[in-house]
Amino acid sequence: MRIGIDIGGTKIVAGIVDNSGKVVVRKKIFVRRHKGYPIVRDAIIQLVRDVLSENTIHIESMDRIGVASAGQIDKEFKKIIFSPNLGWHNVPLRDDIEAALKVHSFVDNDVNAATYGEWRFGAARGADNVLGVFIGTGIGGGIIIHGKVYRGFQNAGAEIGHTTLNPFGYPCNCGNTGCFEAYCGGTYIIERVKKPIESGYRGKIWELINGDMATLNAGHIESGAALGDELCETVWTEVLEYLGAGLASMTNLLNPEIIVLGGGVVYGTRHLIEDVKPILKKRAMAASLKNLKLVKAKLREDAAIIGAAFVEP
Amino acid sequence: MRIGIDIGGTKIVAGIVDNSGKVVVRKKIFVRRHKGYPIVRDAIIQLVRDVLSENTIHIESMDRIGVASAGQIDKEFKKIIFSPNLGWHNVPLRDDIEAALKVHSFVDNDVNAATYGEWRFGAARGADNVLGVFIGTGIGGGIIIHGKVYRGFQNAGAEIGHTTLNPFGYPCNCGNTGCFEAYCGGTYIIERVKKPIESGYRGKIWELINGDMATLNAGHIESGAALGDELCETVWTEVLEYLGAGLASMTNLLNPEIIVLGGGVVYGTRHLIEDVKPILKKRAMAASLKNLKLVKAKLREDAAIIGAAFVEP
């Protein structure tokens, strides 16, 4: 058995994963990023001890502890070079975990881990060329070629969210303009509906969220568009068109066997995949479209935990 | 020694390549695409016989005949599934050459071959992650990962020219809109200057081409822009900005060690690489930019010949 840990912006989840890729038990803690690395690291180590002891499992039976984190990981899979979630720079998480728990550990990027999980145990099982596109607050990407994660020269590859869809388009948090993420990432989509509402726009969307802006998500925008809310129609049409264009672009470049779509925006909407298929089909080249599969991720919230437990360099 | 053959739209070049990747001799024939496959194939076979006999080299001393062609090649590297240059569909060029000449043969996409050539003997020698971007009439791409050509699931990958830079941008010959190629490919660039001239525009560019539209190329447009020709300034500024954005996009996605720029537009202009560097730097993410090299291809017209002679599946 193995342990997989998913470090998010607000919560950290540790799961015990069996050899079939099933999360047997999981435990969650909430963290505040302002607490700083030593405190959060110690909380992670305690979380592992707790999930084991609460289930009366000995740490000696663990083959590895895999950690998934947003951000860039060093080439030796020891340090988180930069974590946007927690504001960490160059933290030696792998060595610290190994020193405390005496189990072989491994740190990887969360989307690489999630895509690997989907390839090994999920929706892309066994496929030769896999593209993972995870649309949450932003967009993360993972590429698996012949069972190995494609990492690039500096371990910084697969930033699909920061491929360009319009050099003079919406500003992106990365500093560039017109990134895939700036068109289709959850935070950006919601922002484009939120602003007009804050300025007084009232349509079906206002009813859908019961006037509570804090609940507004991509699912509401999709529903609003279906109900004829003008603002939602404009925003959602654009989201689908850019998502289709972005996937077509990646299809032409990578000619994947399968594209796995995951993340909150994908799970929280109803027709995203079927609605984007005709746009992808219209835009991508026939040679790359042939036999391409476009599917929803299967492992959901467990993808990064499972992937982290098994992923290799 | 090996033979490399580069099948272009108007000419076919065969070269004898030594084991250091040098083209020792080359011979060229012109073809007309309307002649059809059997006639052109026989001309290629005769071309090989001629280049050998004229240099008194025995065919028995050849280790392989490698053929580079535009278009998609089948997964066994035997057939050209579609050649846009010659209008061929599913032609069994490898088997035909082997039957006639009794030498092990291999057919590959020309840009894959050229990028492989640059990796093995040229500007990207020995690099781990190579992105080749060849800007001729269109834009072709090649990706080399750990010394192997990245081909994708259907052998249709690396179509960098058909990544999207604006879903609602210029129409592309592939049927999509806003492809990288439609912004930065030679034919498309020239068209955007040609049309206004045909409609009566007269600026510095008119002097640069001595009023002869047939000579108009990317070099003239770059020079025109430098001399303050308004039309050229507008077009060339856009070309550089989109090229920089496209390279930044690929840098974020692939995190290559080196980007090799080749093709007629690159060789025929003076400052393209230095002018695009600051745009790439402004747009790409710091983690992927770190230690990235952006260089001009070295093997020029021989790249595909040399690559075809050595490239592996």
How much of the sequence of chain A is in beta strands? 15-25%
Largest sheet, strands/sense/barrel of chain A = 5 strands, mixed
Q: Which class of secondary structure composition applies to the elements of chain A?
A: alpha/beta
Strands of the widest sheet of chain A, in order across it, are: 3-2-1-4-8
How helix-rich are the residues of chain A, as a percent range? 25-40%
The protein's oligomeric status is: homodimer
- Mean pLDDT of chain A, to the nearest integer, reads 96
Uncertain parts of chain A: none
User: Which chain pair has the greatest contact?
Assistant: A-B, 50 and 51 residues
Structure, described:
- The structure is a homodimer of 313-residue chains.
- The mean pLDDT of chain A is 96.
- In chain A, strands 3-2-1-4-8 form a 5-stranded mixed sheet. In chain A, strands 11-10-9-12-13 form a 5-stranded mixed sheet, sandwiched between helices. A 3-stranded antiparallel sheet of chain A has the order 5-6-7, with no helix packed on it.
- Chain A has helices spanning 37-54, 93-101, 110-121, 180-184, 186-198, 204-208, 218-226, 230-254, 264-267, 272-283, 286-289, 303-310; strands at residues 2-7, 11-17, 23-30, 65-69, 72-73, 80-83, 88-91, 105-109, 129-135, 139-145, 148-149, 258-262, 293-296.
- The first copy, chain A, is globular, with a radius of gyration of 20 Å.
- By secondary structure, chain A is of the alpha/beta class.
- The two termini of chain A are 19 Å apart.
- The first copy, chain A, is built from 12 helices and 13 strands.
- The interface between A and B is large, with 50 and 51 residues.
